[in-house]
Specification:
By secondary structure, this protein is mainly α. About 65% of the residues lie in helices and about 0% in strands.
Length: about 300
C-alpha cells in the first residue's frame, strides 16, 4: 500500500497553484486600466471610482508580484529535483514556442513598415472608393515618397552610422558576453559565469539609455505621421524586450551569486540566453531594414 502513490515516471505533476488565476486577474486589470487611462485623456471617466493610471498601476503591481511568486515556486521545484531531463526538455520546447510567437509579433511590425515603405502612395484605387469607405489616401501622408518628404511632423530619419551603429555594436557585444557566461557555466567556472552576466546586464542597460537618448533627439513625432508610428512601434517594442531581457538576466545573475545553476541543470539561464539572442537578431533586422535601407537621402539632416 505504501507504494500505491509512488512516482514511477519522469514527469512533474505540479501542485495546485493560485498564480494562474491571479495572473489572469492582474492582466485583465492592467488592460482595463490602460484603456480607461487612454480614454480619460479625452475626458472619459474612471472605473469603480478609480482613475486609469491607478487601475493600471494596481494591475502591473499584481503582475510583478505574481511573476515573482510563480517563478519562485518553479525555482523551488528545480531544487527539489522535479525538473528531470524529460521535464527540462519540455521546458525547452515551451521556450522555443514562446520565442516563435515573439517572432510573429515582430513580423506584424515589419509588415506594417514594409507595407508603408514599399507602397508609399498606397494601394487604394480608385480614389472615390477610398473616400466612400472612409480611408485616407496614403499619398497624403507620405507625399508618395519613402522616407516621406520633410514636413513639420517629419524632418529627417536617423543617420544609421551614428548612434544606431553604436547600439548595434553594443548588442552584438552583449551576445558575446552572454555566450561567454554560458560556456563558463558549462565548465563550472562560477567566476566567468558571474562576470559574463554582469557585463551583459550593463550592456543591456547602456543600450536602453542610448535608445532613450536617441528618441529624445528624433526629428519626427509618433503621433500623426505614418513613419513615426511604424518606427516607434517596431523599435519601441524591441526596446521593451531589451528591458525585459535585462531583468531576466539580472535575475539569473542574482541566482548565480546564490550558487544556483549547475553544468547539467540550468534551464533558467539557458532560457534567458536564448531570449537575449532573439533580441539581438531582431535588432539586426531593425537596423538593416529601418535604419540603413530606409534612411533615405536626408538621413540625419534634422539633427
Amino acid at each position: 500500500m505504501a507504494d500505491t502513490h509512488a512516482k514511477n515516471h519522469d514527469y512533474h505533476l505540479v501542485d495546485p497553484s493560485p498564480w494562474p488565476l491571479f495572473a489572469s486577474l492582474s492582466a485583465l486589470l492592467t488592460a482595463v486600466g490602460a484603456i480607461v487611462w487612454m480614454r480619460s485623456t479625452g475626458g472619459g471617466a474612471g472605473l469603480f471610482g478609480m482613475k486609469g493610471p491607478w487601475l493600471f498601476a494596481v494591475g502591473m503591481a499584481g503582475l510583478v508580484a505574481v511573476a515573482y511568486m510563480w517563478w519562485r515556486d518553479v525555482v523551488i521545484e528545480a531544487h527539489k529535483g522535479d525538473h528531470t531531463p524529460v521535464v527540462q526538455l519540455h521546458l525547452r520546447y515551451g521556450m522555443i514556442l514562446f520565442i516563435a510567437s515573439e517572432v510573429m509579433f515582430f513580423v506584424a511590425w515589419f509588415w506594417a513598415y514594409f507595407d508603408a515603405s514599399l507602397f508609399p502612395s498606397g494601394l487604394y484605387q480608385p480614389a472615390n472608393v477610398a473616400t466612400q469607405i472612409g480611408m485616407v489616401e496614403r499619398n497624403a501622408l507620405t507625399g508618395g515618397h519613402w522616407p516621406p518628404q520633410p514636413v513639420d511632423a517629419f524632418k529627417s530619419t536617423f543617420d544609421p552610422w551614428g548612434l544606431p551603429l553604436v547600439n548595434t555594436l553594443i548588442l552584438l557585444l552583449s551576445g558575446c558576453t552572454v555566450t561567454w557566461a554560458h560556456h563558463a557555466l558549462l565548465k563550472n567556472d562560477r567566476t566567468g559565469l558571474v562576470w559574463g552576466l554582469v557585463l551583459t546586464v550593463l550592456l543591456g542597460m547602456l543600450f536602453t539609455a542610448l535608445q532613450a537618448f536617441e528618441y529624445g533627439h528624433a526629428a519626427f513625432n509618433f503621433a500623426g505621421h505614418i513613419y513615426g508610428s511604424t518606427f516607434f512601434m517596431a523599435t519601441g517594442f524591441h526596446g521593451a524586450h531589451v528591458i525585459i531581457g535585462t531583468i531576466f538576466l539580472f535575475v539569473c545573475l542574482i541566482r548565480a551569486l546564490k550558487g544556483h545553476f549547475t553544468p547539467k541543470q540550468h534551464f533558467g539561464f539557458e532560457a534567458a540566453a536564448w531570449y537575449w539572442h532573439f533580441v539581438d537578431v531582431v535588432w539586426l533586422f531593425l537596423f538593416a531594414a529601418i535604419y540603413v535601407w530606409g534612411a533615405g537621402a536626408h538621413a540625419g539632416a534634422g539633427h
